[in-house]
Write a structure and sequence with these properties.
Protein name: Citrate synthase
GO molecular function: citrate synthase activity
Oligomer: single chain
Distance between the termini: 44 Å
Keywords: Acyltransferase, Transferase, Tricarboxylic acid cycle
Pathway: Carbohydrate metabolism; tricarboxylic acid cycle; isocitrate from oxaloacetate: step 1/2
Family: Belongs to the citrate synthase family.
Bound molecules: s-citryldethia Coenzyme A
Number of strands: 3
Order of helices and strands: EEEHHHHHHHHHHHHHHHHH
Strand content: under 5%
Length: 394
């Protein structure tokens, strides 16, 4: 027994660390940031306010939120030389690779303290990352489209600025869609933290070596890019388009999944922790409907996704395995309707998850009891044996 968790040798199942940031009850489908239910934050908060809550542990007063917002606006610009960095990538470089490299490169432009135990240094890195990561993300997209890079406009808040730098035209006034900004703000709230998932554990593990925040977040972005983790939102859209291109036969697709034909999975379904409906998926599904209703745009892929969900939720194969829609099942449909290409979906996930990664890094570096440190293993290899010279090997 390690602390309050039993080490079950059959399947190594131990708590990675202690944390006071996010609480999940996978069986009940509960998610809370610093004790606040995700449903209430989704309904009443903003991404900036939720970011403040995750990082500092309390909801900000109006004055604290205003100071947080205005300090972030002063950090959105990249060092001019960083622009050359984007020229080094091929046009078809995946934006997640550019984002991870860009965040690692960001640290090289600042010679002030990288000491993880210097609170002022970590605070400065926190603001630089929160403000500049969306700029790097927007530039990764613009370079892939062969379009000019737009300076941030600090009349906008973080989410609006990201939309300006992504979709704006240097020669035209920007027609910011408030509904789109609001929907993206909500999606960022839903992605802001999620306990010890793959990418957050990566940030903690890298940071536990006293690597600085830039290096740890860059590693987290790489972990998030995998299709079983943050890459699932793009994989869902590919799955829906494939079903549609093959005639839209949902029953046939579900049959293939159940028979594990070609290793095909129902992407956007299942979760390591939720063995019930992911509470974020409920909110995302509602947002998808509102988005499409408002735009009077029927989306055949949304209809297909809903038919796929309904079919799976009535099928014993999925019910017995407690496979329900997770946060990624509907997000891709919304991002696509916003005008993002699918290789940007996981980049959007990273922008949303950044405050959670930062909060978890800061908790880990300030409290050894919350460090993952060095995980152990259950050894399943050969017992001790003696060396055999090569000419005596059979
Ligand atoms: C995220 O951890 C987090 O919090 C992550 C995240 C976050 O916010 O950070 O929530 C974000 O990563 C969400 C998950 C996104 N990934 C996907 O949607 C990819 C598809 N999902 C699966 O790969 C899978 O469900 C996992 C990896 C997410 C979870 O796997 P589990 O719960 O550990 O289940 P398992 O791999 O042990 O499989 C159990 C059974 C197996 O069948 P049997 O061997 O018992 O016959 O369920 C089957 C699996 O084949 N199964 C699926 C399935 N997921 C599991 N079968 C079909 N489709 C699926 N999606």
């Amino acid at each position: 027994t390690t602390g309050d968790v039993t080490l079950d040798v059959g399947f190594v199942n131990t708590a990675a660390c202690k944390s006071a940031i996010t609480y999940i009850d996978g069986d009940a489908g509960i998610l809370r940031y610093r004790g606040y239910p995700i449903e209430q934050l989704a309904e009443s908060s903003s991404f900036l306010e939720t970011s403040y809550l995750l990082i500092y542990g309390e909801l900000p007063t109006a004055e604290q939120l205003s100071a947080f917002d205005s300090r972030l606006r002063r950090h959105t610009l990249l060092v001019e030389d960083m622009k050359n960095f984007f020229d080094g990538f091929p046009r078809d470089a995946h934006p997640m690779s550019v984002l991870a490299s860009g965040v690692a490169a960001l640290g090289t432009f600042y010679q002030d303290s990288h000491d993880p135990y210097d609170p002022e240094a970590v605070e400065t890195q926190t603001f630089r990352l929160m403000a500049k990561l969306p700029t790097i993300a927007a530039y990764a997209f613009r370079k892939s489209q062969g379009r000019s890079l737009l300076y941030p406009n600090n009349d906008y808040n973080l989410v609006e600025n990201f939309l300006w730098m992504t979709f704006g035209q240097p020669t035209e006034p920007f027609d910011l869609d408030p509904d789109l900004a609001k929907a993206l703000d909500l999606l960022f709230i839903l992605h802001a933290d999620h306990e010890q998932n793959c990418s957050t554990s990566t940030v903690r593990l890298v940071g536990s070596s006293e690597a600085d925040l830039f290096a740890s977040i860059s590693a987290g972005i790489q972990a998030l890019s995998g299709p079983l983790h943050g890459g699932a939102n793009s994989a869902v859209l590919s799955m829906l388009n494939k079903i549609k291109s093959e005639g839209g036969d949902v029953a046939e697709f579900v049959r293939k999944v159940k028979n594990k034909e070609d290793g095909v999975k129902l992407m956007g379904f299942g979760h390591r922790v939720y063995k019930n409906y992911d509470p974020r998926a409920t909110i995302v599904k509602k947002t998808a409907h509102e988005m499409f209703e408002k735009r009077a745009a029927s989306n055949p892929l949304l209809e297909l996704a809903m038919e796929l969900e309904a079919t799976a939720l009535e099928d014993d194969y999925f019910v017995e395995r407690k496979l329900y829609p997770n946060v990624d099942f509907y997000t891709g449909l919304i991002y696509e309707s916003m005008g993002f290409p699918s290789d940007m979906f996981t980049v959007l996930f990273a922008i949303g998850r950044l405050p959670g990664w930062i909060a978890q890094y800061r908790e880990m570096i300030n409290d050894p009891a919350t460090k993952i440190g060095r995980p152990r293993q259950v050894y399943t290899g050969s017992a001790e044996r003696s060396f055999v010279p090569v000419d005596e090997r059979g």
